[in-house]
Amino acid sequence: MNVFVISGMSKDVSIQGVFLGTSPFLVAMAVLLALLMAFPNLALFIPNTMK
Question: Where do the structural domains in the chain lie, given as residue ranges?
């Protein structure tokens, strides 16, 4: 939804350009999700130290 808002606010950037601009962040989030699924101790390290 925010992509459409940004596309509407800036008239010189197409919606395709906005999606291309956000693609590195989507890739980074997918890599982070894969890492957390492969190594759940990365996310559980701090909560486990509070016991």
Answer: 2-49
Integer Cα distance of 47 and 5 in angstroms: 37
43, 36 contact by CB (below 8 A) = yes
User: pTM score, two decimals?
Assistant: 0.70
Q: In the chain, which ranges are continuous DSSP H helix?
A: 2-9, 15-38, 41-49
Structure tokens of 5?
């808002």
Q: Is 7 exposed, middle or buried (0-12, 13-18, 19+ CB in 10 A)?
A: middle
Which pLDDT tens digit goes with each residue over 8-45?
898 888 889 989 999 999 999 999 999 999 999 999 99
